[in-house]
Design a protein that fits this description.
This protein is mostly helical. The protein has one domain. It contains 5 helices and no strands.
Length: 124
């Protein structure tokens, strides 16, 4: 259990760091004035989604279907509104949606040390 908690702490640090500095290019947003602000807003939405997911860590054992629902709920609450608000900058396009959804899936996989394909993105 202690090994799992140490791995979770490291994964949390890594995931929070990543979502502090993704650029408009990283998100694959349109090249237009003000897009830097959009990237920062999307990063903030991702950090909020991650924090919501973190609240459940340690409370529940890994169950793919239940974690898929938790990821989907965090995505819908914190990420989708930002993407919708900035859709004119390309935030609602396929590429940013993929990056956000896969990012949240990767965070949970990292916390639990899961390699390979999962169904964690089923509710996004």
């Amino acid at each position: 259990m202690k090994e799992l908690l140490n791995r979770l702490d490291e994964a949390k640090k890594e995931s929070h760091y990543k979502w502090n500095d993704l650029s408009a290019n990283d998100w694959e947003l349109y090249d237009m004035k003000g897009v830097g602000k959009v990237a920062r807003a999307m990063n903030a939405g991702m950090r909020k989604a991650i924090k919501q997911i973190e609240k459940d860590l340690g409370k529940y054992p890994y169950d793919e279907a239940k974690w898929a629902k938790r990821i989907g709920a965090a995505y819908k609450k914190h990420v989708e509104p930002v993407m919708s608000k900035y859709s004119s900058f390309g935030a609602w396009d396929t590429e940013p949606r993929y990056h956000a959804a896969q990012g949240l899936v990767d965070v949970v996989k990292g916390w639990y040390g899961i390699n390979g394909w999962t169904n964690l993105g089923d509710y996004i």
